[in-house]
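Action item from last week, closing it out:
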Amino acid sequence: MTYHNLGNLYAKQGRHDEAIQWYLKALEINPKYARAYNDLGNVLVALGQFDKAAEHFRTAAALDATATEPYFNLGNLMVRLDQLDNAIAYFQRALAIDPNYVRAHNNLGRVLAARGKLDEAIGHFREAVRLEPGFAEAHESLISALIEQEKTEEASRQFQLMRRLVKGQGAATKDGAR
């Protein structure tokens, strides 16, 4: 685990080659360490090594049937590769494991909106906002989809709600709470 943590430290610093070395050392010690495979995949994405990254995400998912992050990361990678049908499938798998996965709802909604499935997309944006009311990105996605459907009054109400929530978070942060 220590090697994995060193990999995370180097990855956060953008020192990808060193991060890879530490993740590989962690996997040498424990070849079934799903989290290390997942995090190694993230570094490989940053380096543009998409095929290898996908392989590591899939390995992580196979090793830990309860892990949502590998599917989420695969979904994001598929979006990046413009493989939207695959992205939808991976985000749905993450949500099958954890129906309360806010970022998966938001990202799935964005892909569905790009596919022109606005009603489905809005459902996922609404769920993301319900689960995490202060998640501004989900509010923005919801507002955009509502405007695209010409539901401007509802979009305006959603915008006002988002402003109140985000402003409230700013005040909480200034007070040291959170």
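Closing note: The radius of gyration is 18 Å.
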